[in-house]
TrEMBL record:
Native organism: Mesorhizobium cantuariense
This protein's name: Response regulator
Cited InterPro entries: CheY-like_superfamily, Sig_transdc_resp-reg_receiver
Keywords: Phosphoprotein
Residues recorded as bearing 4-aspartylphosphate in the entry: 39
Domain Response regulatory: 1-100
Length: 106
């Protein structure tokens, strides 16, 4: 699934794809992102600290990952949805819409 195209198809103006944490380190997350889809592992590294930064900055986000320990994520990030891989585009869009406080697309 092309997540970038999926985001654009649902109204995203600019989509930033990072394949490694160094591509997003140092950014002012509060001003750079309106919302995020975060894989728990990126380029072989955990994204937990990055996700914590998003949460601290008030940036809505969801996890989209094949990570197997959903209970650990739920405990560390209550209220943040984990969309398990493989997932449908509809599942991901609905999760992001909910994270942003918007009703699910019809």
């Amino acid at each position: 699934m092309d997540v970038e195209q999926l985001c654009r198809d649902h109204g995203a103006g600019e989509v930033v794809i990072a394949r490694d944490l160094t591509e997003v380190d140092g950014r002012e997350v509060a001003t750079q992102f309106d919302a995020a889809i975060v894989d728990l592992m990126l380029g072989g590294a955990s994204t937990i600290d990055f996700a914590s930064g998003l949460r601290a900055a008030g940036v809505p986000f969801v996890f989209a990952s094949g990570y197997s320990d959903a209970d650990e994520i739920k405990a560390s990030f209550p209220g943040i949805r984990l969309v398990g891989k493989p997932y449908s585009g509809e599942d991901l869009v609905q999760a992001v819409a909910a994270a942003c406080g918007r009703a699910s697309p019809v």
